[in-house]
Amino acid sequence: MAELSFTSKLTWSGGRHGPGVVETGGQSLQFSVPASMGGVGVGTSPEDLLLSAVGSCYTATLAAILDSRRLSVQSFEVVVQGLVSQYPGPAAAVSSIVVNPRFIGIESGREKEYESAAMTARERCFIGEHLGPQVSYRVGEVEFADETPPAGDVLDVRALPAPRRHELIFRTLDELASACRFTLFPRRPGCPPFFASRA
Question: Which comes out higher in pLDDT, residue 198 or 74?
Answer without folding.
Answer: 74
